[in-house]
Design brief:
With 346 residues, the protein is mainly beta. It is built from three helices and 21 strands. The strands form four sheets. Strands 2, 3, 4, 11, 12, 14, 15, 16, 17, 18, 19 and 20 form a twelve-stranded antiparallel β-sheet that branches. The protein has a four-stranded antiparallel β-sheet with strand order 1-9-6-5, with no helix packed on it. Strand 19 and strand 20 form a beta hairpin. It is globular. The termini are far apart.
């Protein structure tokens, strides 16, 4: 029982450190939390795992460095609207790692339009939020206020913010119920939340999937690559079988009518897709959010998508886009753009 005695001594030390020895409810809650911490730290023996308890106190949450939120097109066939793309950057032992995800959170009428959370043992707890334009800053648990920002991908005056609680593990249920984000206006006054669901980020339309060696099914549009590098195979994909005007979405959304994944024996995995104007399929689609001309390549643009960085070129009534899923650069996607043809059936 020597281990139990050590735990009791540590419990007394931790209780004394709280400075709350009264008999009120708050004191008892504090003692209970400290007890859990002490018992967790003192667990020993085979088969017992030490568990850290999340500290999501007010002073833990601050602006997440190297993290941001954007709205980008979805390359999956038959999906109209936006991917709420969240990116993060972590430095561990001098090594830099990055993460990217595309959550599908519920939306509200504001002022917090959408919120998602994630957490790892290396990056701690991260909370990403999209807000209406009236929100100048936000906080979690009454902590420091973090300013919202805008970027070229956000339509309708939306703003974005990323917060982090470092060196903590997410609490039980963290992914099911993100922490409450409190919004403030430019005068520092809290903004009351509006009830009800907001505009959806995306909607799905009928589609057909296929895999090699199956023939590509007929859909709203067809994607054909006339020249492939030796050793490249069209491995799998999907086509939208019906596309109608997608109303009720944010901004000027795009819809993917076809997507093909090409696999090269040298390790390249290239995704090609066709994007139409979701509100008026067949019309000249809007510019890709946050796109810019690609230096050294006439009429080729670069942007972000649900599959990461893409290159794109316009054709009548559509965008042809391509992305490289491995860190091999853009040479292969650019080459594929030059040899890809599209047929649209409306």
């Amino acid at each position: 029982m020597r281990g139990a005695g050590r735990c009791r001594r540590e419990w007394r030390t931790k209780r004394a450190a709280t400075g709350k020895a009264g008999c009120g409810l708050e004191a008892w809650v504090g003692v209970a939390i400290v007890t859990v911490l002490a018992l967790s730290a003192c667990s020993g023996g085979s088969g017992v795992t030490t568990v850290r308890v999340t500290s999501q106190s007010a002073d833990a949450w601050h602006a997440a460095r190297g993290a941001h939120v954007s709205l980008v097109p979805v390359l999956g066939a038959g999906v109209a609207g936006w991917c709420m793309q969240t990116t993060s950057r972590t430095v561990t032992a001098g090594l830099v790692s990055s993460g990217r995800s595309c959550p599908a959170p519920h939306t509200t009428r504001g002022p917090i339009f959408a919120e998602s959370c994630q957490g790892t043992s290396r990056s701690g707890a991260l909370v990403f939020a999209l807000t209406t334009g009236a929100v100048a800053s936000v906080s979690i648990a009454g902590g420091a206020r973090v300013r919202t920002v805008t970027n070229a991908t956000l339509p309708n005056g939306l703003r974005a913010v990323a917060l982090q609680a470092p060196d903590t593990e997410p609490r039980l249920g963290f992914f099911r119920h993100c922490p409450t984000v409190t919004p403030y206006d430019t005068s520092g006054n809290a903004i009351r939340a509006n009830a009800g669901r907001g505009q959806p980020l995306l909607i799905r339309m009928p589609r057909k999937n296929w895999e090699h060696p199956e023939r590509t099914p007929r859909g709203v549009c067809e994607l054909e690559t006339t020249k492939l590098r030796l050793g490249t195979v069209a491995w799998e994909g999907a086509v939208a079988t019906k596309i109608g005007p997608a109303g009720g979405l944010l901004g000027r959304p795009l819809v993917s009518c076809a997507r093909t994944v090409y696999v090269h024996s040298g390790g390249h995995y290239v995704t090609a897709a066709v994007l139409l104007d979701a509100s008026h399929p067949g019309a000249q689609p809007p510019s890709l959010p946050g796109s810019k001309p690609l230096a050294g390549h006439r009429a080729v643009f670069e942007a972000q998508s649900s599959d990461g960085r893409i290159v794109a070129r316009r054709v009548p009534g559509a965008w042809i886009v391509a992305s490289e899923e491995t860190p091999e650069g853009l040479a292969v996607p650019i080459e594929m753009l030059e040899h890809t043809r599209v047929s649209i059936h409306q």
